[in-house]
Amino acid sequence: MDRPTFFRLLERSRLLSKRRVAKLIARVPDESAEEIAKTLVAQGWLTRFQARQLLTGHSSGLVLGPYRLLKQIGIGSVGVVYKAFHEVMGRVVALKVVRQATQLSDSNGHQLFRREVRAASRLNHPNIVAVYDAARAKGVDYLAMEYVKGMDLRNYVAERGPIGTGMACELMRQAAEALLYSQSRGLVHCDIKPSNLLLRKTPRWKFVPARAPGESPVLVMTAAPMLKILDFGLAQVRGKKLLPTGADLMETAEPGSVWGTLDFMSPEQFADPRDVDVRSDLYSLGCTFYYGLTGQVPFPGTTETEKLVHHATGQPIPVNELRPEIPAPVSQIIARLMAKSRDDRFATPAELAHELVPWCIEEKIPAPSPASSDSSLWRTVSDLDLDAASQTETGDKRRSRNGVAGSDQLDAPSPMSDLR
Length: 420
Fold this sequence. Notes:
By secondary structure, the protein is of the alpha+beta class. It has 13 helices and 11 strands. Helix 7 (165-184) packs antiparallel against helix 9, helix 7 (165-184) packs antiparallel against helix 13 and helix 9 (278-294) packs across helix 12 (328-337). Residues 243-247, 365-390 and 392-420 have low confidence and may be disordered.
């Protein structure tokens, strides 16, 4: 790319004002477009993602309404998720943008997006990713969400191995509280799985007792693990509709159709996607709990049919057989969560949370290794200790895994052409 083309794209992108672009043209030495881009990144005027988009000829869609896209952090069958900055509010968000060409039909993709917007707007809970805004700009729909710095559970386990019993119980307890709240709002999530559970650190103050007579206790800040649920695209609402009659694909979902992720789907959800309640979410949470403690799904079949049969009739290997150090009562909690009949599971998330409390330990989440900070395994709300981030769209709806929001490298070109 030559120098005039780069500056023309930079001006079209609206990332910098026309006045600043004009000054750059006058002041920047007669260097190549690549060298100019590196200089702008070094000065903090562009992110590496923005520079890469311009160098590959993409200038449209880097600014959507009040949001300036900083980095692509996830991609799925329905949307692309970006780390973005709200110009007026000065707030970093995760911006999900509906792709013009999706892995689903256009109507289904947009319906799932609208379902997520409608469902998430009903919720306000510390263990659920917050939704700030939804609008349309340049012909595309977008959803602005809380930007959560941390890993999703799937990639945390893939990166670091199975988690400790105490922390797993604490995270599942927090998930149960979120499900209890969503139940009170009439919602069933219908897609609980490791990649839809984000882990971050949150500051917590506590007193450390005096170590010697005459000394005072010390107030110290610790970083405790916190879980946040996201992606309500498949949510079912009890008593009311999320979308008008005839405009909701879930109303006409046929028994036996798969809307969710097979490795974590309850038997009744496959039998009829509409015949679900909070106990269906608890089954999925049990499968997720199993994955967190063992590093494998409960029924690792090789085909869809095998997995469906196992969920309907099979029993997984107990977690305390795979990890003997796990207490038998914790293994029994997971077995009850994954009971085939809903009546044999916990009746409510509150009941589950009560059973988990004695086993919860707020273990510290270690910071990622330098090697992992540039991987494409991360998601994100604060800038505490986790160095990399991933706020990814996930799925098996069918949806792929997610990207990074950590460092701003000169990333490979993203589907920015969808935003033209």
